[in-house]
Inverse folding.
């Protein structure tokens, strides 16, 4: 008897006393995609969908989205809601405890990351390549968590620090008291941002590649002496003014 290839992953034939023992390992079929309806977006990385008579909570595979207290959480949740509006048909493809959600417009997991509103994670493997490609695009276009124009991102905080250093360095000490005080306060605020960077971690850091982190922190290191020096100079001048 010949076993079909699709059913036989391996066969071990052991002959003994004119008899044979056949061990057959059967391939497990891939789970069929489930077409569901969106019930609601729970947070920036979790959605509830209706499968028949039950509501299922789905975490997005390969997606690390901002928590409620993290940078761009509200924006990420809002965009996820636009990608998955209530009642929309969505295909659910499970990968262990997490899943990929697809609409007629494509893979939602990748779309959210492509907007820079989440970063790739290795939780799940089936869709990781697609999510990584989307992340590369977001990095190149400086979207969301990768943008220096968003104050709460790592690039945004570094830009605020270096911009402040440039402003206070250019500030003339012959200006009026109000202008000098504003400049000194600008330096102080930037120093506060520097102190925050002394405790790395969280999604804003995860969004930036280690090599780029090194580049950004080098800019901060260069700006720090200017900030401390100019704040002291400006405060001293203000004290001497009537």
């Amino acid at each position: 008897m010949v076993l079909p290839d699709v059913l036989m992953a391996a066969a071990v034939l052991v002959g003994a006393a004119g008899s044979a023992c056949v061990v057959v390992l059967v391939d497990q079929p891939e789970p069929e995609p489930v077409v569901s309806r969106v019930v609601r977006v729970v947070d920036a990385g979790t959605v509830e969908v209706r499968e028949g008579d039950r509501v299922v909570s789905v975490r997005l595979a390969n997606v690390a989205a901002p928590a409620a207290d993290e940078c761009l959480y509200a924006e990420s949740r809002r965009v996820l809601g636009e990608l998955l509006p209530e009642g929309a048909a969505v295909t659910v493809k499970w990968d262990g405890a997490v899943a990929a959600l697809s609409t007629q417009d494509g893979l939602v997991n990748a779309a959210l990351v492509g907007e820079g509103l989440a970063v790739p994670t290795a939780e799940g493997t089936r869709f990781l390549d697609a999510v990584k490609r989307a992340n590369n695009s977001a990095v190149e276009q400086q979207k969301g968590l990768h943008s220096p124009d968003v104050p709460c991102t790592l690039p945004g905080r570094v830009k605020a620090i270096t911009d402040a250093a440039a402003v206070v360095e250019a500030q003339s000490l012959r200006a009026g008291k109000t202008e000098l005080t504003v400049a000194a306060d600008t330096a102080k605020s930037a120093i506060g941002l520097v102190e925050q960077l002394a405790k790395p971690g969280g999604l804003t850091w995860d969004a930036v590649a280690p090599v780029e982190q090194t580049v950004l922190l080098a800019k901060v290191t260069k700006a720090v002496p200017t900030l401390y020096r100019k704040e002291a100079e400006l405060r001293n001048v203000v004290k001497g003014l009537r």
About this structure: The longest helix spans residues 210-240. The radius of gyration is 28 Å. The chain has two domains: 34-145, 154-240. The first strand starts at residue 11 and ends at 16.
